[in-house]
UniProtKB/TrEMBL annotation:
InterPro entries: TPR-like_helical_dom_sf, TPR_rpt. It comes from the Bacteria. TPR repeats lie at residues 192-225. This is Cellulose synthase. Keywords: Membrane, TPR repeat, Transmembrane, Transmembrane helix. The lineage of its organism: Bacteria, Pseudomonadati, Myxococcota, Myxococcia, Myxococcales.
Length: 529
């Protein structure tokens, strides 16, 4: 066989093949590089959108949350399987549903959360959103079980703690809820949402100064956080703050137009109604509460302020209005306890007692854990409830029941201990049990004048007058007026009280002491007139 030229053929075949292979490899490498570069660019864009979404969500206003969601929608177009972005979207929609009450946000939250869970996201947003959705749906047992499972797995995040706080609040375990809200707010101090939630919980309990402080921390994180600003105004007004001090804030909030969701519009209207009430115009307050309820029918503060306005008018509908507010938010002590106080002042003792019985029914089965690990009934530790109940019983002439309630308030040894000591002491004074009354009143009205309760000093002064100790009684009455002046009591009211004491001394055969009393007490009100 002729094999001439075969070597040349092999060389030509090998060279061409090699060049072809090199070309193919070059194309593949170029495609790989292009794919890798594109993938890197996509990843950078995804990361940029996720950072932008988190930054917007951190501001906390509805418009900010909408902007964050827009960033996530753009991200999903690039990377539909971004599991943590899906979890963040679920968290945003949950906030829009539970805090800003936007229709349809709950369905969007569930959709995004289902996708995040299917992809295996383990972010705090995923777990927090799931618990919050269960709580919002009233599935507290399921939420409790999930929290316990997550805790056993070591899961921990501020958003999960916030979800736990809302669950505890729904269950009526308010002292534990306060602690959880506080921990969440401290851990996520950059996010105004957490401090705002804590402030609302404190406001629901009637703890106005603490609530105002929490809202202040929220606005420190974002000075333009609308929910914190308006609810801070409401807390100040409930606490009796001069309405002129919040006028500028309310005027600025009303200019925000499209930024205000119906829920925010409702709360602003409630604050305006409270301004009208503070100025003694309940007829102006009622249409504002109606406007608030029209904007958002579930606004319990609107129901509460409406009831307050009716009580200020001594309207018979006040009782039903307070009951409606309590029914809307049963675990908010402010609504029942303050409502009972106002109905009692109106002379509706039966209505006041009905609110307290509803409160007792809500918290009857709630247990709390003491510092030494024991489980006790929450009501046994609730001095505010027993003080309110004692006051209603006392006004109804049921003194024995009132004393029993005050004893329970004393046994609770809560923050209202001094108030309980005064209440029981004043009742014992009315029953002419001077020894028992003096022991209790002296504990909160020390002879040094260092006590903070003007009414306790006044009661002790009356006790001493009744026992013929006029000089010592005048000293206690002086402390009472001095404390009252320090706490902002108008000068004309102090003058009226001073003159009443002067007349008491004169009718008791103490004309010289009456004259000396007015000389001593005069500077307390004359310098202010």
């Amino acid at each position: 066989m002729d094999t001439s030229g075969r070597g040349d053929w092999k060389r030509r075949e090998g060279l061409g093949s090699a060049l072809l292979q090199i070309g193919v490899v070059a194309v593949v490498l170029a495609a790989a590089v292009a794919w890798y570069v594109h993938r890197g660019q996509v990843r950078q864009e995804v990361d940029a959108h996720l950072r932008a979404a988190r930054a917007a969500a951190l501001k906390g206003n509805p418009s900010d949350l909408a902007m964050a969601q827009q960033q996530l929608e753009t991200l999903f177009a690039l990377s539909p399987d971004s599991r943590d972005a899906r979890a963040l979207s679920a968290d945003i929609q949950t906030v829009l549903w539970l805090e800003h009450h936007q229709p349809g946000a709950d369905a969007k939250a569930r959709e995004q959360l289902d996708r995040a869970e299917a992809m295996g996201s383990r972010s705090g947003e995923r777990y927090g959103a799931r618990v919050l959705l269960l709580v919002g749906e009233g599935k507290t047992a399921e939420a409790q079980k999930l929290l316990e499972e997550l805790k056993a797995q070591g899961a921990n995040s501020p958003k999960l703690t916030l979800a736990q706080a809302r669950l505890l609040q729904r269950q009526g375990r308010l002292s534990e809820a306060r602690q959880a809200f506080a921990h969440a707010a401290e851990a996520a101090w950059r996010d105004p949402r957490f401090s705002t939630a804590y402030g609302e919980a404190l406001l629901d309990e009637g703890l106005f100064p603490q609530a105002a402080e929490a809202f202040s921390r929220a606005t420190a994180a974002n000075p333009d956080h609308l929910l914190a600003k308006v609810t801070s105004v409401l807390a100040q007004l409930y606490a009796g703050r001069n309405p002129d001090t919040v006028k500028a804030t309310l005027e600025e909030l009303r200019t925000r137009g499209k930024e205000l969701t119906p829920a925010l519009q409702a709360r602003i209207a409630v604050a305006q109604a409270e301004v009208a009430l503070a100025r003694g115009a309940p007829d102006e307050a009622l249409p504002l509460t109606d406007a608030a309820l029209k904007a958002f029918p579930d606004e319990h503060y609107a129901l509460f302020t409406r009831a307050r306005a009716l009580a200020a008018k001594h309207a018979p509908e006040a009782r039903a209005a307070f009951e409606a507010a309590v029914a809307k938010h049963p675990t908010a002590p402010l609504l029942a306890l303050d409502g009972a106080r106002l109905l009692q002042a109106q002379g509706d003792g039966a209505g006041a007692l009905a609110l307290l019985e509803a409160y007792e029914k809500t918290f009857r089965e709630v247990k709390v854990t003491t510092a030494d690990g024991k489980s006790v009934a929450a009501l046994d530790r609730d001095d505010r409830y027993w003080l309110s109940r004692g006051g209603v019983m006392e006004q109804a002439g049921r003194q024995d029941d009132a004393l029993a309630a005050y004893d329970k308030a004393l046994a609770a040894r809560g923050v209202g201990l001094a108030r309980a000591q005064y209440a029981k002491g004043a009742l014992l004074l009315a029953r002419k049990d001077f020894e028992g009354a003096r022991t209790l009143l002296s504990a909160v009205a020390p002879d040094t004048g260092a006590g903070s309760m003007p009414e306790a000093y006044a009661a002790l002064g009356e006790l001493l007058f009744a026992q013929g100790e006029f000089a010592a009684g005048c000293q206690q009455h002086y402390f009472a007026l001095m404390r009252a002046r320090a706490q902002g009591t108008p000068p004309e009211l102090i003058a009226t009280r001073a003159n009443d004491i002067k007349k008491r001394l004169e009718t008791s055969g103490q004309p010289a002491m009456a004259k000396a009393w007015l000389n001593e007490a005069g500077p307390l009100f004359q310098a202010q007139q």
